[in-house]
Amino acid sequence: MTLIHTPTDISLVKRQPIGRFAPSPTGELHLGSLTTALASFCHIKSLGGIWRLRIEDTDTDRCAQQFSEQIMIDLEALGLHWDGDVIYQSERIDIYNDYLSSLLRPLTYGCQCSRKSLAHYWSQQDNQDSYKQRAEHQRYPRCCVDAKLNLYTHKLRLQLPNHLIGFIDSIQGLQWQNPQQTLGDMVVRRQDGMINYILAASIDDGLQHISHVMRGLDILPLTAAQISIMHASKLPSIDHWYHLPLICHTNGQKLSKQNLAQPIDTRKPSALLALALQLLQQPNVDMDTPARMLQQAIAQWDNTPLQGKQALNSPQL
Ligand code: GLU
């Protein structure tokens, strides 16, 4: 079966554009995450919309309050003021669990496979299989799908649809993804109760009535899974997707916390904004206060130079 995703009835009613920035506070903002924040802010404001801030801190092993605070200090210093209250996902675990035990329940099952047992399983398959088949085997082989294990004392998996889902990404173009083929039955709640972040993001994007999602290209492979989770949860769908090219070092390596990208320094906020706008290939803005620079950037915001690009290189990195 092939499905082209179109917004649900609810979202066809004209609504105020709502965008969001949803950082995981596993470190401070770097130039890559700053450009995502800046682009989503300028874009949604250029549409007369609302910009929300959501702290995606369900991963308690890696997230820290000090990083959330620093992210907010940096955004404020740059004039990137969010609308309404900040949402912390760590305070919303009951909401995600409610969805898992109600609307999503028919799609879930308990799983007792350990990493070790799965590694063993895959090593048994290796001999006969080509590289491509091996890569496919990295998907969970569904050993526990019919085992009827207790849902609350085991990790919980969600059965993602096994058909193509199409959606338009207004930067990357038309996308087709089969979430079952690429992600398999993904773990949505760990045995210790930790909620998977794409599950939490899907539910919150729906509950916050987000209409425009602009985020990094690294999350594009999860988008059809998000569409199907939102659909199964009967939440209003996203009208417009935009996956931004990643900011890369000149050697092509993505700027990320994993490869120790430098935290941004907001002591010279105007220079930083000018650099980020230049990286985003926007027309020049006059050097001024952050507020005035942002006003100008919003007025001349243009996604066109980003279209079809997967990476943006900066000679300064
Ligand atoms: N929390 C994710 C990150 O910091 C972003 C998720 C999203 O924008 O949907 O990479």
How would you sum up this structure in a few lines?
This protein has a domain at 16-105 and 199-250: 3-Layer(aba) Sandwich (Rossmann fold). The protein is built from eleven helices and 13 strands. It has helices at residues 9-12, 31-46, 65-77, 93-101, 115-125, 131-137, 179-183, 197-207, 223-232, 269-279, 290-299; strands at 2-4, 18-21, 50-55, 87-88, 108-111, 155-158, 164-169, 173-177, 186-189, 212-216, 240-244, 246-248, 311-313.
Q: Could you name the key traits of this structure?
A:
alpha/beta, Rossmann fold, 3-stranded mixed sheet, 34% helix, 3-stranded parallel sheet, 317 residues, binds glutamic acid
Explain this structure to me?
This protein is α/β, with parallel strands linked by helices and 317 residues long. The chain has a domain of 142 residues: 3-Layer(aba) Sandwich (Rossmann fold). The chain has a 3-stranded mixed sheet with strand order 1-7-8. The chain has a 3-stranded parallel sheet with strand order 2-3-4. A 3-stranded antiparallel sheet has the order 5-6-9. Helix 9 links the parallel strand 10 and strand 11. The model has no long low-confidence stretch (mean pLDDT 91). It binds glutamic acid. The site of glutamic acid has 7 residues, from loops.
